[in-house]
Design goal:
Strand content: 15-25%
Order of helices and strands: HEEHEHEHEHEEH
InterPro entries: Plipid/glycerol_acylTrfase
Number of strands: 7
Largest sheet: 7 strands, mixed
Radius of gyration: 16 Å
Domain Phospholipid/glycerol acyltransferase: 42-158
Shape: globular
Strand order of the largest sheet: 1-7-6-2-5-3-4
Number of helices: 6
Distance between the termini: 44 Å
Pfam family, one: Acyltransferase
Number of domains: 1
Protein name: Phospholipid/glycerol acyltransferase domain-containing protein
Structural class: alpha/beta
Oligomer: single chain
GO molecular function, one term: acyltransferase activity
């Protein structure tokens, strides 16, 4: 397992640089109104359909949720893109003995209310048009190891073009409760309800 070697000034610079890149690539990035719980770390569970997803998580952590970003990445991806290690990237390797260590490491980070950990619970790239979100069992193990107050938030990013040549990203955020207070099966059910709400809201999005 590769632990994060987060450097604050590098992370802050990267957040500003990526906002510049996102403004170039997207017509607009719209974050729906959301207030995080004060005094809680955040486990940010995100739908995963593109390479932009980690950057959306970074954008949310720095500019909207005001937490220090950490992000769980596939081991081979982090090895190839080692610079992300300095921005809060740490590794997980599915099916390996080190996977439990990675989940416990993520839980440890979430004991600090200043931190936010981005995880893609689908475990693979899935179209953002999918109507159901599958959640890997490892999320349950991660949550059970969190000792401090931690808010679980589902982030659903949906892409539309409307009248522009560039895509617009719409980020829908949902409070899924406090870690340890919601059984895993109920969490999965709630995330899928939230996902359906995001899809329905997107159809009626003003532009």
């Amino acid at each position: 397992m590769i632990p994060a070697r987060r450097v604050t000034w590098m992370s802050n610079w990267f957040a500003k640089y990526m906002r510049y890149r996102m403004r170039k690539a997207f017509n607009q990035v719209v974050v729906m109104p959301f207030e995080p719980k004060p005094g809680h770390s955040i486990l940010l569970l995100c739908n995963h359909f593109s390479w932009w997803d980690g950057f959306f998580g970074n954008y949310l952590a720095y500019w909207h949720l005001k937490r220090k970003l950490y992000i769980m990445m596939q081991h081979d991806h982090l090895e190839k893109r080692w610079l992300f290690n300095y921005f809060g990237g740490f590794s997980i390797e599915k099916g390996s003995r080190e996977m439990i260590e990675s989940l416990q490491y993520a839980a440890g980070l979430l004991n600090d209310p200043q931190n936010l950990v981005v995880v893609f619970p689908q475990g693979e790239l899935i179209s953002n048009h999918a109507i159901e979100v599958t959640i890997e069992r490892g999320i349950d193990k991660l949550i059970k190891n969190i000792k401090g107050p931690c808010q679980v938030v589902y982030s659903c990013v949906l892409i539309d073009y409307f009248e522009s040549l560039k895509p617009s990203a719409y980020i829908h955020l949902f409070d899924c409760g406090v870690a340890g207070q919601v059984p895993f099966d109920e969490l999965v059910k709630n995330i899928n309800i939230c996902h359906q709400q995001a899809l329905a809201a997107q159809v009626n999005m003003e532009h």
